[in-house]
Amino acid sequence: MADGSWYDADIDRVIVSEEQIREKTAELAKQVAEDYREVDGVLLVGVLKGAVMFMADFARAMGRHGRSVELEFMAVSSYGQGATSSGVVRILKDLDRDITGRHVLVVEDIVDSGLTLSWLLRYLASRSAASVEVVALLRKPDAVKVPVSVKYVGFDIPNEFVVGYGLDFGERYRELPYVGVLRPAMYGKV
Ligand code: IMP
């Protein structure tokens, strides 16, 4: 158990620490800045709400590497059974602008089954983006089952339900600065 804040008591173990997230975000941004050195104004597309923390930190890290970025957000809901997404997606908030000819980088908190992401990539491609790539902070092993190309991955994590750094359980724990696994007793409490 980590210690310090109220939420530490609810966490069984930390999977990715605050420091690891900071270092990896800087590393990913450096790589992306290099790969997009010819592109001015990469368009980052974050999916609400989970990607908010990573989006904010990743955008600032890109800025530190001298790349200008623009930010867009989408909100989607995935129809699924419990924790499993089905790949049938409804748009709750669409892009605010035309992305024709833009170099789009989807910023994802986690790729689990990959179903939501593969739908999103098809959708963005249909809106005539010049290129669409993905940077995901976390990826679970099941993600390999769906043929979705994630060019930049932060951490491959075990197939467990995690919270923190944008990820929630019943809308709680998004503000945790790290990613961790909840104590089993917490699942009955929301
Ligand atoms: P996918 O379509 O199965 O890849 O699911 C993607 C979405 O499910 C993510 O963007 C998260 O919002 C959510 N999700 C998947 N795994 C977890 C988890 O371990 N904790 C919290 N949310 C998760």
Give your account of this protein's structure.
By secondary structure, the protein is α/β, with parallel strands linked by helices. The chain contains 3 helices and 9 strands. It is globular and about 50 Å long. 34% of the residues are buried. The model has no long low-confidence stretch (mean pLDDT 91). The protein binds inosinic acid (IMP). Inosinic acid (IMP) binds next to strand 5, helix 3 and strand 8.
The proportion of residues in beta strands is: 25-35%
Radius of gyration: 16 Å
Q: Assign the structural class, choosing from mainly alpha, mainly beta, alpha/beta, alpha+beta, or little secondary structure.
A: alpha/beta
| Head-to-tail CA distance between termini | 20 Å
**What ions, cofactors and ligands are bound?**
inosinic acid
**Overall residue-averaged pLDDT value:** 91
User: What's the helix count?
Assistant: 3
Topology:
Blueprint: E1 11-16, H1 18-35, E2 42-48, H2 52-64, E3 69-81, E4 84-93, E5 103-111, H3 115-126, E6 131-139, E7 152-156, E8 162-163, E9 179-182
Parallel strand pairs: 2-3, 2-5, 5-6, 6-7
Antiparallel strand pairs: 1-9, 3-4, 8-9
The chain binds inosinic acid (IMP).
Notable traits:
single chain, 190 residues, alpha/beta, six-stranded mixed β-sheet, three-stranded antiparallel β-sheet, 3 helices, 9 strands, globular, binds inosinic acid
In short:
By secondary structure, the chain is of the alpha/beta class. The protein is 23% helix and 34% strand.
